[in-house]
């Protein structure tokens, strides 16, 4: 959850905000937790935004999508190896691991939209390790009407 409001999507401190948003995932209760940061593409269309994230090896049951506030979406989850594996440099039963690059553990991403969105009609699908989220823009609010007192 971000403690710093996002005023503009082109704000020059965006990498700092991302670091602050993800800082809590680096260590919990003094115990180091493996984390990784999935990559996302974000597109703006006339009536919606679309997010496409790479989540290889992640089951859709292990992904949660929530709203932190009316314009900020939070995506988090976890993945685990489905097999026992020694760490790099470790040898078990005659097998030495030279490199272990596949990421496992927890992940968390937060995205703030520059304009109001329609949370009620968001759709999310996941296929072949790609999470697709469609976020409709909120319809323009009606113009304020002046009320005449009678």
From TrEMBL:
<dbReference type="InterPro" id="IPR002068">
    <property type="entry name" value="A-crystallin/Hsp20_dom"/>
</dbReference>
<dbReference type="InterPro" id="IPR031107">
    <property type="entry name" value="Small_HSP"/>
</dbReference>
<keyword id="KW-0346">Stress response</keyword>
<dbReference type="Pfam" id="PF00011">
    <property type="entry name" value="HSP20"/>
</dbReference>
<dbReference type="InterPro" id="IPR008978">
    <property type="entry name" value="HSP20-like_chaperone"/>
</dbReference>
<protein>
    <submittedName>
        <fullName>HSP20-like chaperone</fullName>
    </submittedName>
</protein>
<feature type="domain" description="SHSP">
    <location>
        <begin position="31"/>
        <end position="150"/>
    </location>
</feature>
<comment type="similarity">
    <text>Belongs to the small heat shock protein (HSP20) family.</text>
</comment>
